[in-house]
């Protein structure tokens, strides 16, 4: 085959009977992942019939790495079957997807003959052995680097796929693939921030796939959170009370928290006015004083340790309320002396406390009225 690395087979040291013809035309008959079957023309030695065959094979990579020691050469005395003009021998207990150099010789009762010319053959691919030692040496808020230990045996051209499985929904989220048996690292992207994942590594050959058994559970790093949810601004509905608002919101969705929420921030104000700023641990601000007849903008966001999240804003027109009631301790109407009028029998003077009549904290005063009635009428209602 074209992808074999052919190199010189070492010369055998054992003696051979000169008149025992060398086995010729050795060819591959069939292969599996652990066996190679060869066939050849049976020799016709003059020293008697063949009583057995010896097959010698060696890993092709070992041959090319600088020679062989005695332990490197594997010998099998194998059972062979005969047909009309061919003999078939099977070599077993081989490794998958390994190159082997194979020679065979026959024996008569006198002894062995010469080795055949070596043939090179590779066993078939097999199911991969599982990768192990899954780890996450580097992680970010949206990606992680996955590393693993390659299988203990190469069983064919191998690719690896590392998959992040959502630890909450148990669904595959994202993955990365790398090719080559020696590859042991790849980067999974497009993950959610501060989210738990179970990392599984799959080894694949053309035959099948095998999954790692020592999977790793990891949480991505924190990031700035998403928007808060359920953002409400409610204005005081009792018109006799000062103008205030309540601002409340809910945290971002569980997947959009992106970390541990440290606080919530509210900024509010109107054009030309002061921008106010306040933080809370619960996303709730009650009885915030506002000016009537102004259009306020309220902006809120959540924060995590990495920083400020996405903002959420809404605008609210603050309606005017009723003029605020004067406290009983404050006298608003002052009666003047009789000398202040021209007809003391039909007239009297009324003075107003301007600071009380002109109180606009609940809105602009549009009208002012003075009600005059006889004392007995006023007392009755």
- Helical fraction equals under 10%
Mean pLDDT: 82
| Share of residues in strands | 35-45%
The helix-and-strand class reads mainly beta
Cα-atom radius of gyration: 47 Å
Total helical segments: 3
Oligomer: single chain
CATH level-4 homologous superfamily of the largest domain: Immunoglobulins
What is the terminal separation in angstroms? 117 Å
Largest sheet: 5 strands, antiparallel
What is the number of beta strands?
A: 26
Q: CATH top level of the largest domain?
A: Mainly Beta
The secondary-structure element order is: EEEHEEEEEEEEEEEEEEEEEEEEEEEHH
The structural domain count equals 4
Which fold does the CATH topology of the largest domain refer to? Immunoglobulin-like
Inertia-based shape: rod-shaped
Question: Which regions contain 5 or more consecutive residues with pLDDT less than 50?
Answer: 1-15, 62-72
What's the CATH architecture name of the largest domain?
A: Sandwich
